[in-house]
């Protein structure tokens, strides 16, 4: 399967703990995006990378959130000191620079903070 | 801030009928609009996009219409099938803004 993959698919954590999610984009895509989606809402943009450079961050991305894409391939999203309000689906997407708006999404990581 | 929204949160259509899902946007500077389909338990799936300099674009069984005068776009699905049941999002490509989605239910 050459689609976008995310790991883990589900994560349950206690408030205050740190969590890290991984995204593996489609191999030839140089753009990678992170979104957050809550029940009944559309995805909310968090950040995106072009190769290893983080080009844009939403104001939704508080200081507790950090994303990396060290070698321009996979990316990680870390949430420190999780809060119950962080409970959501975290979606990763990738696209090529020639078709940047045609984003291919992974299945998401569902985070539950208890 | 920029917003993208759909007119109806839910839409039910009979199998075989045509579906029309509407969306309004606020940012006149958006250069691209995209429609995504999201099935339960899956990430959104790209359907079709349209540049702001176009009025209409057709794909396989889908047509997107863009009316810049009233800042409105629509997705038309021809001969709706049970597999079309999903949540549909319109999105502005300018700043990756998604609307809240319309849930399409196809009735047998």
Brief write-up:
The complex is a heterodimer of chains A (114) and B (108). Chain A is mainly β and 114 residues long.
List the helices and strands and how they pair.
The complex is a heterodimer of chains A (114) and B (108).
Chain A: E1 5-7, E2 10-13, E3 19-24, E4 31-37, E5 44-50, E6 53-57, E7 65-68, E8 75-79, E9 88-95, E10 104-105, E11 109-113
Chain B: E1 4-6, E2 10-14, E3 19-25, E4 32-38, E5 45-51, E6 56-58, E7 62-67, E8 72-77, E9 86-92, E10 97-98, E11 102-107
Parallel strand pairs in B: 2-11
Antiparallel strand pairs in B: 1-3, 3-8, 4-5, 4-9, 6-7, 7-8, 9-10, 9-11
Give a structural overview.
- The complex is a heterodimer of chains A (114) and B (108).
- Chain A is an all-beta fold and 114 residues long.
- Chain A has strands at 5-7, 10-13, 19-24, 31-37, 44-50, 53-57, 65-68, 75-79, 88-95, 104-105, 109-113.
- In chain A, the strands form 2 sheets. In chain A, strands 2, 4, 5, 6, 9, 10 and 11 form a 7-stranded mixed beta sheet that branches.
- In chain A, a hairpin with a 2-residue loop joins β5 and β6 (53-57).
- Chain A is globular.
- Chain A starts with a strand and ends with a strand.
- With 108 residues, chain B is mostly beta strands.
- Chain B contains no helices and 11 strands.
- The radius of gyration of chain B is 13 Å and the shape is globular.
- The chains are: A mainly beta (114), B mainly beta (108).
- Chain A binds chain B through residues 4, 33, 35, 40-45, 48, 91, 93, 100-108, and chain B through 4, 32, 34, 36, 41-46, 49, 89, 91, 93, 95-101.
